[in-house]
Amino acid sequence: MSISCPIDLNKAALRTEISNVYGRVAAAPEGDFHFHRGPAYAAEFLGYDAVELGRLPAACTASFAGIANPLAIGSIHAGETVVDIGCGMGMDLLLAASRVGAEGKAIGVDMTEAMVEGARASAAACGLSQVEVRKGDATALPVETGSADVVISNGVLNLVPEKELAFQEIVRILKPGGRLYLGDIAVDAPFTEEVRSNVDLWVA
Ligand SMILES: C[S@@+](CC[C@H](N)C(=O)[O-])C[C@H]1O[C@@H](n2cnc3c(N)ncnc32)[C@H](O)[C@@H]1O
Question: Is residue 88 in contact with ligand 1, taking CB distance under 6 Å?
């Protein structure tokens, strides 16, 4: 199975559009979007613990826009370093931070400024000093080589056209024997060239 579809796509326009859409999610998550959001969706459909979500800042959980629960895939241990690629407002990131504890590290990366600011604010509101949020792209992670015990990501790689590069980056930052807990979207039928090169359809 191929994970990429080489395509003549305006990648800069796609990233601008993605940042616009997710900037709006950060500012007004109750707005009109085609995808599900928020803590009730996360608890009811994705198996998150509603009590645990209730301890996080409302702004953080309201902007949750993931498609699965990567933290349910495997364990995260105290003292580990976790990197969340496309962390959004940081719901998974803060949950991971509570698992690694004060001796560990939870690093979030997102390319949308409003998401980065929101995740930082949520971490500060929770007093989680082990959280660091860095602005950056999944294809050039601002993370040291061989530094992560666990990489998580939720609903992000489907938005990245350069999928091989994104996976190379995951492999680069993981320690030997590190784990990837990935929640994302896959299709089992090919899209036409016209569909794949349509920026609106990538984010719509
Ligand atoms: C569907 S949202 C999911 C956010 C978060 N993982 C969650 O579960 O709420 C997608 C996020 O990925 C980010 N994103 C999309 N493409 C990215 C890329 N190439 N590099 C870094 N972040 C990206 C967006 O800014 C947005 O915050």
Answer: yes
